[in-house]
Structures are given as C-alpha cells and as structure tokens.
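Let's do one together. I've listed all components of the complex below, 253 residues spread over two lines.
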Amino acid sequence: MEQNLSRSDISVRKTGESTFLWFLKLLTGLLVITLLFIHLVVNHMVASEGLLSYAEVVAYLSNPWIALMEMSFLVIVVTHALLGTRSILLDLNPSRAVLRIVDVTFIAVGIVSIVYGIWLIQVITA
Amino acid sequence: MATNSLKKSPGWFDVRRRSAGMWAFVLNRVTAIGLVVYLFIHLVVLSSLARGPQAYDDFIELVKSPLFIFSELLVVIGGLYHGLNGLRIALTSFGVAVPYQRQLFYVFLAITIIGSLIFAFRMFTAV
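Okay, and this is what the predicted structure of the assembly comes out as:
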C-alpha cells in the first residue's frame, strides 16, 4: 500500500526504464500539453468550422507552419504514448527477452506511425 | 516466458478501499490506455483523407452522430484529466508543491469535471 502511494504521487523510474526514457516521457508529456493548446488555438483561429470538410483540411495544412506544427505534434504524442504504454507494461515485470520484443515492436510502431502521418500530410497538400 | 510475466500482474486497477493517491494513479492509467487506443484509431481513420474529398466528407457525416459525439466527449474527459494530473506528477517529481499534491489532485479533478460539463454542453448543443 505504501509503495502504491509513493508510486501514485510522484513519478519514479522503474526497473527497465532508464533515466533518459523517464525524463523523455515527462518532457514529451509537457510538450503534448503545450502543442495541444497551440493546436486548439490555431485550429479555432484558422479553421473556425472545425475542419469538418476536406477543403478546409487542405487549406489548413497548406500553411507550412501549421503542417510543421502538426508533424511535431504527431512525433511528440506518439513518443509519449509509446513510452507511457511501455511504462505500464513494465508493471507486469516482463523478462529481458519480452522487454526486448516490446522495445523493438514499439520502435517499429512509432516509426511507421510517424512516417504514415507525415506521408498523409504530404498527400493532402500535394 | 511471456505467460510467467503476465501472471505477475500487480492488480493496480483494483481501487476498492484505496486512498485518493491510488485513485489518481489508476485514473491516470485508465485515461492513458484510452487515449493511446484513441490515438491509433484516429490515425487509421484519418486515412480517409488520402482517399479523397468524398471519403472524408462521408466520414465527417458519420461522426456527427450522438454516439460519436459521446465517444469524443470521453476523449476530452480523459485528455483533460490525464493532462492536468500529468502536470501534477511533473511538478511533484521535481519537488514542486509536494506537500499540496493531494489538494492539487482535488483541484484538477474539479477542473476536469467542470471542463467536461462545459464541453458536453457545447458538443451536444452544437449538433
């Protein structure tokens, strides 16, 4: 119980999670909040109708700064999501072999998701 | 090997007779899992953009249904809680406001509830 309390109140590194990954999870979390706020403000200012039509999405992403912001958002949110999921899986005390499979899978999923997202933006704005 | 790992599940999701701190932790976990699932569904669904205007506009008509709006509301509630609780965790992890973390949890929970009600009202009245 005491262990659960300390774990719940303060983010601590776990076995299998390096200081770098722990810090990256925290940093990307803060960046997600920041970029989400910017995303919502820009979205509201540029696309007041809420991107509810294809034409509006194309116009929105045609601005290179907005496209860059959306790509950055994608990279950061995918990184945070995968690091967070890895963190949850660490609670199941996986063996080194299982953790290696998880790491390789998550890196592959992360790369595919980011490349796919960037490709999608390129296709829409082409 | 994987089976042995899974047998050691800590049962963190059982919040019966647990403290506010444990509730904060479990809610953070549940919202995290929900948001990760949403993120990847969102990425897959956005592939309709690559299929052209008709496919995207048809999809938008579908998401205007009350069921989809309710699902989006769940994402907003999860995002609000996870973001605010994440701020609390970040602050306390760096030694900021540690004596007030319980109060912070209740304040952020109140903001989540109020924010969710405002979003719910706006989302359902905009239909």
